[in-house]
Amino acid sequence: MRSKKSSYLALWPAVLFGLPLGPPNAFSASPARSIAQEVDAGFGYVGGATTRGGGGNIGSVDEWNADLKYVLSPQITPNVLLRFGAEWQRSTFGVPDWAPVPSVLQQANAIIGFDYQLTDQWLLRAELRPGIYSDFKDVSWRDVNAPLLVGVAYLANADLQWFFGVRVDGRSHYPALPAVGIRWRFADDWTLNLVLPKPRLEHDLNERLKAYLSAAIEVDTFRAGDHFGDDQGRSDLNHAMLDYFAARVGLGLSWRIRPSVNVEADAGYMLHRRFNFFDQHLIFRSEPAPYVQVACHFRF
Fold this sequence. Notes:
By secondary structure, the protein is mainly beta. Helix content is 3%, strand content 64%. The chain has one domain. The chain has two helices and 19 strands. It has a 17-stranded antiparallel β-sheet that branches. A two-stranded antiparallel ribbon has the order 1-2.
């Protein structure tokens, strides 16, 4: 019979501020499970959204986005997993050349952290993500940042788990963003997974196929290029800090092709998007627009 500890540790499917809390049975006494691997890839498109700010209208702005992440997690003690990896994300916006909004926001970062089992029911993750966060023009040390993410999970039982976390970024206008979430399997085929950044209501159609109503929150901070403002006649925007925020809601399907391979596709509406040069008090906001997104997740 599986121990209470191993049963709870198998319940790490939730995500807290972009922290996927490990594959099933991440902590294991078996030498075959001494190293876990995660690969995530996604691609999406947001249709043209009317975008205004700075006293004017910059027109319809669409968006292409892509991300790729790899994490290797060696188990060094029965209670500790280390996490090493890399991540790349890029968003390209269809903005006019004269608009004071970057056409590209991009990050390339390392992932350094650990998972620690505090008790049978309490789990901790801490993760540092040092890297370059900018428009990737005039790249220098100014563009280097290292957000910190800390999450704690309380596993009440097989059907109910609570999550607490905080995202710390000293360069953001909001340097600390806390969050609370819950994963509750309230019926045989229904799961309420209210955990940021992608809360969901999930319905199991069969053993392999799942439908879901989802939301997604994106929060990141980037630095503009050294001459970004000169190109728009706004020298005060040269190497300025920019907070990016987007929220969307949609419907999707998740297909577990194999126990270690999962493919997802969803579509809906981006409800809000904001580019905030907070030091310059300049904000651009986008109206709602449709989006589509596909992703693939591997866990070994």
